[in-house]
């Protein structure tokens, strides 16, 4: 954490215990007993992306209110939260960003409520910006653009084979870039009822198994044969082909690396997009071709079907409008 205020709270988090004959010394036991609930909440966030997002939101709130100590959160009222919400709007932040920051703060106060550190959650009841629409803002590619992107890596080098396999995995399985980065070699070799499945570690530690598209299976196999790490079952599936910083090519390609890969190929084709657009493309395509929306929800790893409906454009197609049903 970067600011002194946040660092103060982080410093009060549970200590790391050095292995020994006794797991906790008397001093360590007392130190853990005195950890503030606010620090417990932050230490309990295990997902890296969630931790980063919540940290950013709480840091912003602390900067706005001038909070420097963990126990000062207990004096926060709904008026403080409303003033912060209005200040975020005055900065020109979008409704989605404001809703997310309020949700982050609400998570902290819900934890404090559960610990009886505060009597109520001051974020509860604060009016949140409405969603601009029921449709997502992430662009989805047309079928011809998706085919162009799949064919974009032209060379037969290890990089070209890897990039074709990555693009196919994203477009046929709708993975988040972080999910793709976490794939192990063994994760594309799970057989269920005679069909190869992709084992995906999703948000919140949830695992889902997706039938592996035959074209993707061939491309991954081709890549592993060229890269030479197909026997390393527990190693990263997709790896960098060059690492100027450490020279280590055994680590997984990073989510940022996946983003830049998609950005590079799509930009060269004239429609620069990020990796999440391929997830939107796969979901939209599946729904347009009459996939059951409940199955698509499970496929995407969405906790709420309302999130999946963002990708469902079947009711917004102009040709289906009642306008074209009117006959005089």
Describe the structure in your own words.
The chain is mainly α. The chain has two domains: 4-114, DNA polymerase, domain 1 (Orthogonal Bundle); 143-309, hpI Integrase, Chain A (Orthogonal Bundle). It is built from 14 helices and three strands. A three-stranded antiparallel beta sheet has the order 1-2-3, with no helix packed on it. Helix 4 (48-65) packs across helix 6 (95-114), helix 8 runs antiparallel to helix 10 and helix 8 crosses helix 12 (276-288). The N and C termini lie far apart (67 Å).
Rg value: 24 Å
**Termini Cα gap:** 67 Å
Q: Average pLDDT, to the nearest integer?
A: 86
**Largest sheet features:** 3 strands, antiparallel
Shape: globular
Q: What is the helical fraction, as a range of percent?
A: 40-55%
The CATH topology of the largest domain turns out to be hpI Integrase, Chain A
Which terms would index this structure?
hpI Integrase, Chain A, three-stranded antiparallel sheet, 328 residues, 14 helices, mainly alpha
Question: Secondary structure elements and their pairing?
Answer:
Blueprint: H1 4-11, H2 26-33, H3 37-43, H4 48-65, H5 78-90, H6 95-114, H7 143-150, H8 158-173, H9 177-181, E1 190-192, E2 195-201, E3 207-211, H10 214-227, H11 255-268, H12 276-288, H13 293-300, H14 305-309
Helix pairs in contact: 4-6, 8-10, 8-12
